[in-house]
Prior knowledge:
Elements: E1 2-8, H1 13-27, E2 31-37, E3 54-56, E4 63-64, E5 67-68, H2 70-76, H3 79-88, E6 96-100, H4 103-111, E7 116-120, H5 136-144, E8 150-153, E9 180-184, H6 190-197, E10 205-210, E11 216-218, E12 221-225, H7 228-237, E13 240-243, H8 247-256, E14 259-262, H9 269-280, E15 285-286, H10 292-299, H11 312-321, H12 328-337, H13 347-353
Parallel strand pairs: 1-2, 1-6, 2-3, 6-7, 7-8, 9-10, 9-13, 10-12, 13-14, 14-15
Antiparallel strand pairs: 4-5, 11-12
Amino acid sequence: MRALYGIQGTGNGHLARARALAPALREAGVELDFVVTGRKRQDCFDMDAFPDFDCFRGLSLALRKGRLRPFGTVFGNNVFAFARDLGKLDLRRYDLVISDFEPLTAWAARLRNVPVVGVSHQCAFDHAVPKVRGYRASVMVMRHFAPASVAIGLHWHHFGQPVLPPLIGRLEAKRPLPGKVLVYMVWEPLDKLIEFLRPLATQCEFIIYTATEAEHAAGSITIKPLSYRNFHRDLQDCAGIISNAGFELSSEGLAMGKKLLLKPISGQYEQLCNALALQALGRATVVDSLDRDTLGQWLELPMPQRVAYPDVAAAVAGWIAAGRPVALDELASDLWRSTDLPLVWDADFGERLRFGLLA
């Protein structure tokens, strides 16, 4: 089997998930080529897992100072360039397209009648998983952005739906260092983050990963350039994570037993839903602004129990390589039975949250 793997390059979560799934697919006998969209080639880093990848502009969301900009999203995307790239993409040598919320390969495959397997957190929103009310335009975009013949949705809990556990790489957690906190909020201004953390930096080791040229210090706060390898080395022994409410990093945090302090991107539907779900599962402190009192209280929280998710990458890769021999809901059931899941979904609490902070 030969497959074209399309990866949405906006943010780093889709690439992190592909770094886990691509080796498993190769081990299962699938030959892979890669397309990355939504990011300039010069902004891609640590791409060894995707040799000779093609890079296109694709479609992406416009964000400014941590807030979604709807007009920038609409007018910032060049639909004519997208249509041109759609016509240039040659799928004749592929048996299958795998899309992690990547629109160019997904739409090219649909137009050419090539099967598309969607593997993403966004696919979970086709089901009755926790969602905030409203955001109809975002719901429509998510539904049609990257169409798939078979959609594999990923989430932290099954919620009684045929979704799979998170697809994350093999993680080795070390004994956490008290006070070591990893900060990943690339959509927030760096000076604002430093101002927020500085009063508590004498008692904690804050490490901020952001778009900077070289490692440097801001007082007792360490600023590091984006790096997949270095980031995960710091992730291994940190006690907590401060970030926006993206899916993949939160998944790694749950799997490694890290405390989570999350500020969802304002107006970003998926992140608001993620924050709602993690709050109702009792596994994150969620804020709508960088509040120092909340930070101090969060730092005092005990370490949570890790969630032992199974090897979803190997299961999905084997399922794809074998020609999808069982129904998706059966695959989901098998994987959840193999999950040590110390998470309890409080549906009533989740419903009340809709009318609170995240409504």
